[in-house]
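Quick illustration, no need to memorize.
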Amino acid sequence: MIEEQVRDRLNWAGNYEYGARTMEHPTSLADLQRAVAGATRVSALGSRHSFNDIADSPGTLVSLDVLDPAVEIDEAALTVTVGAGARYGVLATHLQRRGFALHNLASLPHISVGGAIATATHGSGNRNGNLATAVVGLELVTASGDVITVAKGDDDFDGMVVGLGALGVVHRVTLRIEPTFDVRQDVFTDVPWDAVLADYDAATSSAYSVSLFTDWSGDSIVQAWLKSRTDSGSPAPSSFYGGTPADRPLHMVPGVAADHCTQQLGVPGPWSERLAHFRLAFTPSNGDELQTEYLVGRDHAVEAITAMRTLAPRISPLLQVAEVRSMAADDLWLSGNYRRDGIGLHFTWKPMQPEVEALLPELESALAPFAARPHWGKLFAADAAQLAPLYPRFDDFRALARRMDPEGKFRNAFLDRTVFGTSGS
């Protein structure tokens, strides 16, 4: 019992312990409204896959994990409305059964819809926006406990989607969907960096989604994962910039069995079983890792990658694996891809938090010339003063949060540090 209580206060990786005094699991919208209205400070807790304190509160945490996701598909409008606490993998399975699809999935299908959207979490693909770009409607519980609904096109909607938990507790989300499609996944090893960097856009346009896995050392990308839609009209990838086609399933972390990874070797299957890197039925790891990610404009891809390769002697000893992916631009105020096509430089670290945190300012300094924006749910060092110039609508978001939550009920240490400034003003 004590062990379960301890686990209940930890994030997925076990590197952060929530400090909230109480935790509630509402079973209905009315329960959620009561919990929010009755709290002095409150935050929503998703699937706990953030590696920092973004989801914590000095007062109450509310988790939507036991609420009925109540999936509602509007076939005419091509939308799905779902509870924010639903896992993407569960939603994907439901949509696939009904003949529909989302445009993309993140690496893990285990993450919650609400949490992924609030932090601008993404999949991959030069023409694919992050997961939040599929949002066309939100239902939120405000600080007073009232329920409001907003839709794409409404005033400030683009500021509310990637809301960092600062505006209210998202109860339900409406997402754009499309007819289902099949995907094949092909893996290539030992891909020369020079060949890819000679035309980065062409390389990452080679498939619907391309992920490059590296330890930043050496002259070659360790693995390239290409996810190709079978309805694209393009031939299946038989080569990739001098890489060797894998002859067996591979895990991106060296020495780890591929049992938990989605099907490879070019075997076609539904999007719901290919776009994520890991299978919903398995826990991809025991959580013994940390994560950081920085997003830069795709026009700076080569320079940013070169900067990380230069820092390989500092990075590699702390690293399990790094991943480079591309995303399309969007109009969401606090998105890492606001008004710019981008790439994500993702670091999966060994569980060595003091050493990782000591390195982060050096990484951020190296990426500063490229206006690198950190992933909101992962480890980073920048504060509000450093982040504000990176987002043209940053002040607008702060004003929106103050209008929607004038008493600061949804404020926490993370928001004070990274959005409003350490003074909490």
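Residues 1-6 have pLDDT under 50 and may be disordered.
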